[in-house]
Amino acid sequence: MLQFYSWVLCNCECNCNVLQLKNKSLFSSYNGSSLHPMLKKRDDFEDILEERRRSSDLRYALRCYTPTLYRGLVPCKASMLKSIVLQSDHLQYVIKQVSSESGESTEGVSEEASLILDEMAHCLQLSTIRFFAFTLSKAFKRLFRSVCVNEEGIQRLQQAVQEHPVVLLPSHRSYMDFLMMSYLLYTYDLPLPVIAAGMDFMSMKFVGEMLRMSGAFFIRRSFGGDKLYWAVFSEYVKTMLRNGYAPIEFFLEGTRSRTCKSLTPKTGLLNIVMEPFFKGELFDVNLVPVSISYERILEESLYARELLGIPKPKESTSGLLKARRVLSEDYGSMYVYFGHPVSVRSLAEGKINRSQYNLLPRYIPQKPSADTHEFLSDAAFRLVRIQEENMVLKPWVLIATLLLQNPDGLDLSSLAEQTDWLRHLALAFGAFLDWPDHEACSEVVSCSLALHRHLLSVSAGHVQLSVTDVPQVETTPEEAVFHQAVVVLSCASYRNQILHVFLRPALLAMAMQSANSNRKDDVYNGFNFLRKVFSNEFILCPGDSVQDFEEACYLLMKRGVLQVLEHEIVMSASGHSTLAFLSGRGVAVFSDHKRLILLRFEMSIFCFLCAFVIMASGRLKCYEALSSDLQKNALAAFLRLKAVRKVKV
Amino acid sequence: LPLSLSLSLSLSPSPSPSLSLSLSLSPSLSPSLSLSLSLSLSLSPPLSLSLSLFLSLSLQEIMKWNGWGYSDSRFLFNKKGQAEFTGKRYRLSGLILPSLKDWFEGTFGANLQHRSPATPSLNLSAVAPPHLNQPFVEDLKAAGLSVSHDPEDRVFRAHGHCLHEVFALREGRIGRVPDVVVWPSCHNDVEKIVELACKHNVCLIPYGGGTSVSSALECPREETRSIVSLDTSQMNRILWIDEKNLTAHVEAGIIGQDLERQLNERGYCTGHEPDSMEFSSLGGWVATRASGMKKNIYGNIEDLVVHIKMVTPRGVIEKSCLGPRMSTGPDIHHFILGSEGTLGVVTEVTLKIRPVPEYQKYGSVVFPNFQQGVACLREVARQRCAPASIRLMDNEQFQFGHALKPQVSSIFTSFLDGLKKFYITKFKGFDPHHLCVATLLFEGDRGKVLQHEKQVYDIAAKFGGLAAGEDNGQRGYMLTFVIAYLRDLGMDYYVIGESFETSVPWDRVLDLCRNVKERIVRECKERGVQFPPLSTCRVTQTYDAGACVYFYFAFNYRGLSDPVHIYEQVEHAAREEILANGGSLSHHHGVGKLRKEWMKASVSGVGLGMLKSVKEYVDPQNIFGNGNLL
């Protein structure tokens, strides 16, 4: 949210926290308003580990597994699947095409296709699944206090699986995600998914094959121009989908989000799973967004380091064994929320003209048309937003937010007070907050602090983000900055989990500050500009600016902060003093923002060392600006807004 | 329609049995006598005497005014709760159908206690008084034409057989109806009428057999002029038969079964047998691009016509010779075929005829599932060895057909039936809820038919098909003739339904069938229909590049306040689904007013513009203002 930027901005420029002011305005109005907090209806959770702790894991792994299946299922074996794919009209067509273009014989190209398929294909085996069921039970029990699942979601999934082919779309924060998904589906007697996984796993000896046998199929990270590869891959996925072989599982975000913010979704695979519907081969496809949230992420500090430019450790079996260390730590609870199935048919209603596929034989690959593209991206954004909305937020997320805003730390008592206030605000904005019932706020806060103690220093009732687990030997200033940055970025990854809740109201507040008048369209234009600037950073559907604007107005209005008149938006009487102050600063803030943009721009040009020097010299206290993710997004945004140009050197 | 002639007499308010009239009596009277015994009794008195009798006869006495077909033929549930079919006209007439009740109640969730009877008779006061163009009517009478503005005559010609049309009649609701009915008896009469219509600026709506299912006969609401229904039923003579070239020249008002019967008497046939052939007319076939069941041998209507004469406001359009094919620019016949009464009245048609086939044989094949059946039909089409007719019913329709099995007379037959069933389901392992049936009709000389039959059964065997006997085949074809009667039965018990069709490339047949059927089920559910609907299809025609698919859709409307509206919404959605799955707007029912909204998307803006400019030139005053198609 604005928090993020304005806070960065204020720290380095004017030492004034705009957001806090805004928050206070919200706070004051909260007390005066009698509105009920907006409560979205969400299902209850059930802890599946409870049962695991009580009964035998072995018996569990060997139990009778009879999943509910798709009613139109044409049963077939993994090997059979391969020959269906290789014989398909689509693949045969592309093979002939490739062969005539390259001059290679069709047999040669077919052979190549067959090799690609061998490399890619999964070979799901129940025995492997049982092995995983056993070992993962052991591991999960050590790692997590509880693994919570919404059972109503499972029931909906059970229904959906029978009706139409299903695509599972989990969020991706950790390697744990897909192991957990398969584990859960096994637990609930649902058909095991086949999972699109990156090729990196395959290079892991033994483990790669294990994953393959538990239903993973492997795709190369990039195969842009390779027609044959694309044909084999898409036909493989479509064949499984068409005959209802198994639910397809893939990650819309394409990769694990290192920042815990949802990533801009990719549409390639989404297009593949929707095409059978577009072309009439399936009546419908059910997309099931799944939100997986962790109280503490296993890869927490790994991510922060990666963001600071230390390359991701290559996936290897030995690396995995070394990582055993994680088993000894406490990662709190984990939540898996199965969202309502989204029917592709109803998504596409009125948006996709399916008769555009009438004039070409369906096996001839067709690039998606402009409106299909738009639809795909729109759908992808929507699905990611559903994922975001169903992410469970723990109290720590609120605390992290507050601690990041107060780099000098807070007293425990005021931290508890502000956390409580933020909690009400978040709830009012529809956050899915898991707050323990009947517990004093200070209790909850100290619990959270305990779980994340490695990121904090607590002394004499004063809490501050700091490095604790690094020995305090002499370090160079660069190292000190680095360690501090790791802590800040780790903490930011928690704060980022709640950004989606505040994003729209924050953009509106910012737009109001910077707008020249109260006129609705002025504010809207500012809002829209900000949306454009930040669209690489956050999940903002390209076509939804009016909707987002209205949503933001509604939320702030409900909190009594704003009054939306026909042509004007005004701060309400209760927040009038704040309004005067904010609007007075509006111009400055806006130009500051531009300066920030410039600053970030420079930083993305200069190499890391440069930034380190600046940091170390203490001129800039904004550790988050060191995140490669932020830099990447900023650069992409500038390119998009045509503020910079790519020049080949 | 045996009584077409007598009707014309009875309908004219000032009967003047002129010479021309009595002449026109002879060709059509004798066949009608030979056809139907019950009618021949009333017709048997000498002609001079019977003239007064004719006067009292009206169309409504042998045809239902608010339902399908003959008044004497209808389905009903008797006091024992058994279904029976009344009358004597059909193979099924007078028979008890013991399993229909269970099927009906089970499929629709209907109940014989819950009745929704129709208004018994037409309430004449509900019919608006005619808006007459007096000078036009007087000129017609002066020209010696039969004219009527009797409410019953007008109501009868104000509708086709769309569900909403029949439903409204059953409820006694009458919308806009034609103001005048006129009966030309020959081409010259039509020329005269069209000329007068232009002169007095009235709207003409040609009426043939009245079997339209596209709202084509509905009077446009926005029409302010006097609307005249031009009933072609009196133009029903075969004018000549040319045995050297195997052609016949026929007036366009002739009804299908009359044409076929009269030609049969001379040893010929056209072979054009649309499912509506009992009631539909030759002119109607031309105007809607009709398709016949046996098109595999004889072709569709566009393949059958050699020459067409049509009267338009600009004058008469026709070709100058009877050459079998011409390269003279775009074929002008194709402006006429499918013009749906928007350009003029087809008055005379020269058709190809064929000698009556020596031998006919029905047949049927059972497939384990619909996919296999479609694959078999595709293979038959690929080898271009389709019999005169080949149709594939899905499982639901197979069960429907089964429910129409009459009571078996002997224990032996029922034992045999049981044995057959056992063989197919238990021995061959066909799932009774998946198996489907193809019905076949072979025609030609005996030797070739038997050879052909073997070829087709051999192909079927490759797709897991088992020959299932002639009887099943014949019953399949019977279903198409009685289906419209069955709809009337359904409407007596809160069940409404209709059929619609499309044509689609082979590779999309299965997907289209599945998706459309499922769409229907889903739409019904979403709109609050309490019971799952009957949603079934069959592949009725095979072509080199695709097939024609026919859907039946019906549901129980108890608890719905506006069932017809819901029906229309579902049908609309089903049509959208068809178009989205690569199906055509229509294979043979035509566009009418029901499917007009999709015309532009179907034929492109330019295509539609072309058709409009033809209309503009031919009929600038919009005399043929039925508002169809464009």
UniProtKB/TrEMBL annotation, chain A:
Its main location: membrane. It holds the Pfam family Acyltransferase. It is found in: Membrane. One of its GO terms (cellular component) is peroxisomal membrane. GO terms for molecular function: glycerol-3-phosphate O-acyltransferase activity; glycerone-phosphate O-acyltransferase activity. The chain crosses the membrane at residues 597-616. Residues 166-295 form the Phospholipid/glycerol acyltransferase domain. Pathway: Phospholipid metabolism. GO terms for biological process: ether lipid biosynthetic process; fatty acid metabolic process; phospholipid biosynthetic process; triglyceride biosynthetic process. SMART domains: PlsC. Belongs to the GPAT/DAPAT family. This is Glyceronephosphate O-acyltransferase. The lineage of its organism: Eukaryota, Metazoa, Chordata, Craniata, Vertebrata.
TrEMBL record, chain B:
The keyword GTP-binding does not apply. Its EC number is 2.5.1.26. FAD binds at residues 206-212, 288-291, 340-346. The keyword Lipid metabolism applies. One of its GO terms (cellular component) is peroxisomal membrane. Pfam families: FAD-oxidase_C, FAD_binding_4. The record marks 391 as: Important for enzyme activity. PROSITE patterns: FAD_PCMH (PS51387). Substrate binds at residue 487. GO terms for biological process: ether lipid biosynthetic process. Its cofactor is FAD. Homodimer. Belongs to the FAD-binding oxidoreductase/transferase type 4 family. Catalyzes the exchange of the acyl chain in acyl-dihydroxyacetonephosphate (acyl-DHAP) for a long chain fatty alcohol, yielding the first ether linked intermediate, i.e. alkyl-dihydroxyacetonephosphate (alkyl-DHAP), in the pathway of ether lipid biosynthesis. Catalyzes the exchange of an acyl for a long-chain alkyl group and the formation of the ether bond in the biosynthesis of ether phospholipids. This is Alkylglycerone-phosphate synthase.
